[in-house]
Structure formats: C-alpha cells, structure tokens
Design goal:
The protein has helices spanning about 5-10, 55-65, 90-95, and strands spanning about 15, 20, 30-35, 40-45, 70-75. The protein is an alpha+beta fold. It has a single domain (about 5-80), classed as Fe-S cluster assembly (FSCA) (GMP Synthetase, Chain A, domain 3, 2-Layer Sandwich). It has a 3-stranded mixed sheet, covered by helices on one side. Strands 1-2 form a two-stranded antiparallel ribbon. This is Aromatic ring hydroxylating enzyme.
Length: about 100
C-alpha cells in the first residue's frame, strides 16, 4: 500500500460544483497508512458550507476502499488550515489564470 495509490484513487473523486478532482484542487491535506493497511485521509472542502461535502467524503472513502489490500478507511474533515486556491495543482491554477 502506498500513498501514491491512494492519491490516484482519490483523483477519481470529483467536486461536482467545480468539475475537478479533489487531489488537483488541493483538498487532500494528508494520507497516512499504518502497518495493517488502514488508511486515514485528512481533507477539506473549498468552503465549510459546501452542499456536496457528504457526497464527496463518501465517494473518497468508497474509492480508497476499492484499493486492493486496504483494511479500513477513515476520512478526517478539517478546515484548519482553510482551503485557498493556492493549494490547487499548478496545472489547474494555470487553467483558471491564477
């Protein structure tokens, strides 16, 4: 189990309001994997009032659970530090002219 595999799975999770994946949006703050292949993802939303937060969090958990060998998944939602457009990948920032 690797962090890269988890991030690849999370790239399949789309923020439907923006139409981009949560990794390139910079919503994933951390991925931790313990010795038993339990995965903990710490992530945020673009705003605390995101109406799709529940769906996005569930989709993230589902995508990580589909990785062969994953034992358990925990998604931690945080707003500290708050998300800013600076967290987006360079490619996405260029696309938006940032």
């Amino acid at each position: 189990m690797t962090k890269e595999k988890v991030l690849e799975a999370l790239k399949q999770v789309i923020d439907f309001e923006i139409g981009l994946d949560i990794v390139n949006l910079g919503l994933v703050y951390d991925v931790a994997i313990d010795n038993e292949n339990n995965v903990t993802v710490t992530m945020t939303m673009t705003t605390p009032a995101c109406p799709l937060a529940g769906l996005i969090l569930q989709d993230a958990e589902d995508k990580v659970r589909q990785i062969e060998g994953v034992k358990d998944v925990k998604i931690n939602l945080t707003f500290d530090p708050p998300w800013t457009p600076d967290r987006m990948s360079e490619e996405i920032r260029k696309k938006f002219g940032i």
